[in-house]
Amino acid sequence: MAGYITTLEKHKFVCGLFWQSLSKPRELNREAAELGRRIDSDLMVVRMDHTTAQAGFAQTRDGIKRGMYSLAAVVSKTLAIEGAFYDGEQQPVHNWLGAFKLPDGHWVYFAVRDANFLPNGDFAGTKEEVLDRLHNDYALGGWNVVLGEDELRSFGFHNFQPRDIKSFIPQRPDGSIRIHKWWGMRQIGGRPSWVPMAAAAAVIGAVTLGGTYGWKIYQQKKEEREREIAMQQVRERLMREASVAARPWAKKASPVSLMQSCQKQFTHPTAGGWVLESYTCTQEAQTYAWGRGMSTVAMLREQMPDAVVEATGERASYARPLKLQAPQNEDLKDTRETLEPLLSRLQMMGVPIKVSTAPTPQLNTSDQQWQPNWRSYLFKLVAGGMEPLEIAEILNRPGVRVDKVVYQGSQWIMEGTIYAK
Fold it and tell me: Source organism's superkingdom (predicted)?
């Protein structure tokens, strides 16, 4: 992943590091340096949050220099200290997604699972590229919170918290950035820890093999073995990540199951006399958004003590998790067999549906690319005068999932994904 450099105030921050977990608490820096050499990186930063230690790697050939600061390390440390509000309380957050606008117009994206950055979970690019990654990873489920610019609120992410990138960076009393040296990229130099021992063994081996030629052969084999081990470790980690994405539909409830839960738990449309602006139901959570109307905050609190009220006192929201059962042993059908009967049935019922091809998820290493053996299509429809549960029954087919249901302006809107071979 190529690094990207951005400027905050007068300081240079780098995005797009390649993150790898560390396992030797007493030798983190040495372990990170040795791993960096194996994967051909010459810059690193080490982060420690909760009980997790990771190293982020970069190359100077990408224009990154020693002393530039890792933006991912800053954001993750702030979240580790502050935690986040979800499931009704402020608590540590180990699974989160973030998408933030940078001062230069680019966007940065972070994906953290079990307090570890995913290998490709530190990325900077255009807004469209970042949102593609955000939506694809969000569909995997299991995230505690989603953080990002306020303009992302409309996507209906559960436990969404609006923040900008500067809110994660420590500040001095005068408002300027308070820099911490450990954020900085460090040069990977010197020799690996195995060199002194290997050198001694190689001297003996060189005599046995016949001097200079034996030494050269030994060194070549040693380097090849080290590179092979390092790349195998990277492949294994990336393929473990790929296995999570291999069958995303298997972790999602059926359209009927989701719709039944959404309607059954739609119990607070006018809490405290407040006016419902929207009710959003996803595979993970249900969320209410109200406007005050002619009511008061106190009246809302009487019915919804856990509601989040904006500082103006004019808008409020409330979210709680949903726990749904996913179908078992569901096999996909081919694209024609999946799409055409579904579209025909909705057309016959007079329900317009918009379908578009979803981006194909990919995982890359320098010599390998994983791609799914299925295709996915995004859809959106408005129920109109039909009962939403009736539409859900039409959608209740292998590989069809409703990702989000929104009730707004007396209309039910459904968005989801169709998976097919």
Answer: Bacteria
Report which of 17, 18, 16, 80 is spatially closest to residue 48, judged by C-alpha positions: 80
CB count within 10 Å of CB 153 equals: 15
Ranges 244-248, 304-308, 338-342, 346-350: which has the least confidence: 244-248
Contact criterion met (CB below 8 Å) for 420 and 339: yes
What's the CA gap between 215 and 233, in Å, rounded? 27
pTM comes to: 0.49
Q: How many Cα atoms are found within 13 Å in the side-chain-facing hemisphere of 226?
A: 18
Whole-number Å distance between alpha carbons of 177 and 69 = 12
The chain-wide mean pLDDT, for the chain, equals 85
Rg (CA), the chain: 26
Q: With residue 356 as reference, give the H or E element that holds it.
A: strand 353-357
Q: Could you give the C-alpha distances from 102 to 4, 71, 72, 127, 160, in angstroms and in order?
A: 11, 11, 13, 10, 19
Distance CA 41, CA 60 (A): 8
Angle between helices 388-395 and 335-348 (to 10 degrees): 150
> What are φ and ψ of residue 185, in 5° steps?
-70, 135
